[in-house]
Amino acid sequence: EYPDATKVVQDAKFKYTELVKKKMKSALQPGLGGLAKTPEAEDKAERLAELIHGLADKSADAIYEPAVAEARRFQVRFPGYKQNDRIQWSLAQLHMNSGKYPAVLLAYRKLLLEEGSPYREKALFAIGELYADKFKRYKEAVDAFQDFVERYPQSAQVLPALERTALLYSDRLDQYPLAVETYERIIKLFPKTEGALKAFNAEAKLQRDRLKQPEEAIKTYQRLAEQFRYPPAAEALINAAEVCRKDLKAYQREVDFRKKAAAEFPTAKEAPEQLYQAAEVTEDDLRDIDGAIKLYQEVSSKFEVHKLGKKAAERAAKLEKKKGG
Q1: Quick one: how far is CA 218 from the chain centroid?
Q2: Of 234, 170, 228, 233, which is closest to residue 203 (Cα–Cα)?
Q3: What is the pLDDT of residue 163?
Q4: What distance in Å separates the CA atoms of residue 257 and residue 303, rounded to the nearest whole number?
Q5: Torsion over CA of 207, 212, 216 and 217, rounded to 10 degrees?
Q6: What is the DSSP letter of 61?
Q7: Phi, psi torsion values for 217, nearest 5 degrees
Q8: pLDDT tens-digit profile of 173-216?
Q9: Which of 63-67, 69-73, 106-110, 300-304 has the lowest mean pLDDT?
Q10: What's the alpha-carbon Rg for the chain, to the nearest Å?
Q11: Pair 114, 85: CB distance under 8 Å
Q12: Rounded distance, CA 41 to CA 106, Å?
């Protein structure tokens, strides 16, 4: 408050640093010790504000009560301070660092009343996280995240808000159709992005494992393969083949997906194995010896130097001999 009173300031700094050394954990000492440096701002309110922000960034339980008291005293002393929303945010962080979650929620809600403040956006997203992670009130968390997306559709946090919503629906609320709807919204809003890729895979997994809709899962994998390149596209085709095999016992469709993966990505490391597996399924499950021979020969000719190329040639020859005999 009085940076020009040199003797008083130096004495206060000395006492403060000694207190930090004696009372605080060693990991906290560098950060808290640095707060003894007088802020460069000329205005008293600005200096005190910087101190409060620093306390919020580096606070510990030992200084929680005096730090909160200082923040509240500041709000009373300087009611017209132009960045009072930042003080309120720092107050919320002080409560958060000490696990006072009801007080955090109250502080965030007060920020929502600050017209034109950039902290309103941060506070609303943080309320969703608070409900989900600390209070375990998952429906309220979903409501907060949905409100956030509606209010701030251009925010960089829209994707994280939708992702959290989908996970809460699937993992906490058992609302699988609503989770699928949310993933579809992500795919539509963020096409051909990492977020969309994750949404496609998560949606297909829900359709297969939770909703017991293997046909829908296959369609989702097909859409993924159409929108993305290798390697996600190849993985999607292989996953579709697995659904055909394990869930539907649709062996011809499995063969078609494996052949498609090998044909569309002939230089990929998965290509030899997928074509070889297509041949095996044709032989063992479809009982189509002629078709199997043809596929084994294709593996041998296309991947001659690969270990499966030699194995396929031997298998084709063995089947030809068996067929002839």
Answers
A1: 24
A2: 170
A3: 98
A4: 19
A5: 50
A6: G
A7: -60, -40
A8: 999 999 999 999 999 999 999 999 999 999 999 999 999 999 99
A9: 63-67
A10: 31
A11: yes
A12: 30
Buried b (16+ CB within 10 A) or exposed e, 58-72: bbbebbbeebbebbe
Residues 193, 201: Cα–Cα separation, whole Å: 13
Structure tokens at 31: 């950060």
Structure tokens at 303: 């991947």
Contact indicator for 218, 243 with CB cutoff of 8 Å: yes
What end-to-end distance do the CA atoms of the chain give, in Å?
102
Residues 59/97, Cβ–Cβ less than 8 Å: yes
CA torsion angle 221 223 229 230 (round to 10):
10
Per-residue pLDDT tens over the stretch 48-83: 899 899 888 876 666 889 899 999 999 999 999 999
Q: How far apart are CA 27 and CA 58, in angstroms?
A: 11
Q: Measure the CA–CA gap between 258 and 270, rounded to whole angstroms.
A: 10
Q: Check the CA dihedral 78-82-88-89 and report its sign.
A: negative
Other beta carbons within 10 angstroms of residue 213's beta carbon come to 18
Ramachandran bin of 287, using left for φ above 0, alpha for ψ from -120 to 50, beta for the remaining angles = left
Who's near 194: CB < 8 A, 6+ residues apart?
A: none
Decide: 228 and 220 in contact? Cβ < 8 Å.
no
Q: Which residues, 6+ apart, have CB-to-CB distance to 235 below 8 Å?
A: none
What is the mean predicted confidence (pLDDT) over 235-263?
98
User: Which amino acid, 248?
Assistant: L
Query: What string of DSSP letters covers 131-180?
Result: IIIII--HHHHHHHHHHHHHH-TT-TTHHHHHHHHHHIIIIIS--HHHHH
Which residue's entry shows tokens 């906490």?
172
pTM, two decimals, is 0.85
Beta carbons within 10 angstroms of residue 161's beta carbon: 23
pLDDT score at 38: 52
Q: What is the mean pLDDT of the chain?
A: 90
